[in-house]
Structure formats: structure tokens, C-alpha cells
Automatic annotation (TrEMBL):
Pfam families: Complex1_30kDa (PF00329). It comes from Seinonella peptonophila. It is a peripheral membrane protein. One of its GO terms (cellular component) is plasma membrane. Residues 1-22 have a biased composition (Basic and acidic residues). It is found in: Cell membrane. InterPro entries: NADH_DH_suC (IPR010218), NADH_quin_OxRdtase_su_C/D-like (IPR037232), NADH_UbQ_OxRdtase_30kDa_su (IPR001268). NDH-1 is composed of 14 different subunits. Subunits NuoB, C, D, E, F, and G constitute the peripheral sector of the complex. The keyword Signal does not apply. This is NADH-quinone oxidoreductase subunit C.
Length: 202
């Protein structure tokens, strides 16, 4: 009887111990964080200047001259225009000669392969007004031609030659449009995204 009593006591004790143990519940899943919508960016202080420029260009060259205009706030509120190629020569002259703008200094000029089209990008600076502007000129990939602006900004000379050399964009009216980096006998244009080198190992 003593052994049976001991067994019963142990069984009762184990049941009590189990009842005392806290019930283990599955860990709660973290609630998904609700993303707060970022407040809209404040208007750039240069928006009025851009609006004035676009209005003046539209009045003189027509609505088709500028395809897009905006202030690049990531680029220190840089005035930016996307320009129709057919109006570029007249617009370039206007940007340099118009008293309100006087973008007399060509800082840089570069070509970009956007896969479906090319772009020539000009960074201009006004020494008179201490202001900058960036102009993107879209160029047809099947007919890559754009007016040269060497007669407006002589510093464009070598820039345009380099773009021609590496992307094959023709600058009509350029006084000496020849390769400047690659050998004259080089085939193709190395900065085009569809360029296939003759020697894949190089």
C-alpha cells in the first residue's frame, strides 16, 4: 500500500506541476508597419524663373520647341529643359544672346545612349546672372543628327567630336567633324549599348 500511495502522490504532484507551468502560446506576429507617405516636396524657389524662360521661348519659337521643363531639385535647383532637335539651333542662340539669360559659357556637353534614342546634354552657365541650365536634346537613333553649336559656343568643338567618335551622332555644320579618340579606321561606336567589338577578348 505504501508504494501505491507514493505513486499516487507522485502522479498528483506531477499534475500539479504541469498545471503550474505557464501555457506556451505562439509568438505574436509583428504587425506590418504602415508606411507614412512622404510629404510633397516644396516648390523650388526657381520655379518662377523657369516659367518665365519657358514662356519667353514659347513666344519666340512656338510651343513645340520645349518638350519638357522642370527644376532638378537634386541638382541644386538646376533649371532643366528637354528640347526638340529641330528647334535646338535657334534656342541655343536665344539662350546665349537674350539679355535675361546670357548663358555664354558652355560648361560641358555629353552624349547618352538611352537605348531607344540618343540624347545630347548641355550644361550652360551665365556669368552675368550666376545661374545654370541643363538642356537635353533628343536625337533619333535611326537618323542621329543634330545641329552643331560650335558657332555659338566654340568650346563645343571637341565635345561634339568626342560624341561623334563614341556614339556616331552627326553634328551638322561642325567645321571639322572627325574622330578625336579612336583611330580613323575604327569600326563602330564604342559607347553605343548595342556595340559589338570585333575582338570580344579586348
Amino acid at each position: 500500500m505504501t508504494e501505491e500511495n507514493n505513486k499516487e502522490e507522485k502522479t498528483a504532484q506531477s499534475k500539479e506541476d504541469q498545471e503550474k507551468k505557464p501555457v506556451q502560446r505562439p509568438a505574436a506576429r509583428p504587425r506590418p508597419r504602415v508606411k507614412k507617405e512622404a510629404p510633397p516636396p516644396e516648390p523650388s524657389p526657381k520655379e518662377p524663373l523657369l516659367a518665365e524662360l519657358v514662356q519667353q521661348v514659347t513666344e519666340k519659337l512656338g510651343e513645340q520647341a520645349i518638350e519638357e521643363s522642370y527644376v532638378n531639385q537634386n541638382g541644386e535647383h538646376l533649371l532643366t529643359l528637354v528640347v526638340n532637335r529641330d528647334h535646338w539651333a535657334k534656342l541655343a542662340s536665344l539662350l546665349k544672346q537674350e539679355a535675361n539669360w546670357q548663358y555664354t559659357y558652355l560648361q560641358n556637353c555629353a552624349g547618352v545612349d538611352q537605348q531607344t534614342y540618343f540624347e545630347v546634354v548641355y550644361h550652360l552657365y551665365s556669368l552675368e546672372h550666376h545661374d545654370q541650365i541643363c538642356v537635353h536634346v533628343k536625337v533619333d537613333r535611326d537618323q542621329p543628327e543634330i545641329p552643331s553649336v560650335v558657332n555659338i559656343w566654340p568650346a563645343a568643338n571637341w565635345h561634339e567630336r568626342e560624341i561623334y567618335d563614341l556614339l556616331g551622332i552627326q553634328f551638322t555644320g561642325h567645321p571639322n567633324l572627325q574622330r578625336i579618340l579612336m583611330p580613323d579606321e575604327w569600326e563602330g561606336y564604342p559607347l553605343r549599348k548595342d556595340y559589338q567589338p570585333l575582338d570580344e577578348g579586348v
